[in-house]
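I have been asked to look over a protein record a colleague put together. What it holds is a sequence and that sequence's fold in token form. Please read both lines and tell me whether the tokens look consistent with the sequence. I do not need a full report, just your reasoning and any doubts. This is what I was given:
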Amino acid sequence: MKDTDGVLLAANTARSQAYAQLLEKKEYTLKSVIILNARGGNKTGISTNIHIDHNVPGLSLFLPDLSIPLKETCDLITDNVIELNTSNVNDNIVFRTLKSLHTDLVIYSGFGGQLVSEELLSLGPEFLHIHSGWLPDYRGSTTIYYSILKERYCGVSALLLSPEIDMGTIIKRKRFPLPPVNIDIDYIYDSAIRADVMIDVLENWEAKGKFEQEICQEFESGNTFYVIHPVLKHIAILSLAQN
């Protein structure tokens, strides 16, 4: 096993399932996992009814199995799973819990649309976030579809969080081929490519004790996108059959 002092701060989502399952596959153990899991609330991103083909021709990605509960996998990668009855990453209970763990690295996998507060970022550890867009060109939401339409590839950027949206220091960028036809992009492909880059960054951090590639962003550069219109999203999906 590969022991790391890092903490996974995870909403109960498909992306977090992908992160935890790939960490387990790569035999990583973490100091702790914090799960934002408001009991009785909406566990955004969870879906156990999506067809998953783990033998997609030409696809060398690890694909998550969304039928496996997040907590079940987390129990395999740490002896300290902490479930918090909140869906808000900036809840005071999250601040107090994270502060008590004294870690140097937080792997962040929160609910989409939430920005981590300056107060939480001021605790000290680096917050590693994996964004499915080539920064700074594709900041914002659902950028994977804009990239499919315009660039004909999917980009992923690893960055250290700052208070502004997708504006932190970039530490790795990677391009992926277009998703295969009929794979679920939102739950499966997006989660898989993010998890792939997360593991690359973690392996490098463990080996070198630091983040090597650092690209500082300027606010004026790049583009910010908003939730894609359903028609454009549908066109992007249809375009995959023409590749």
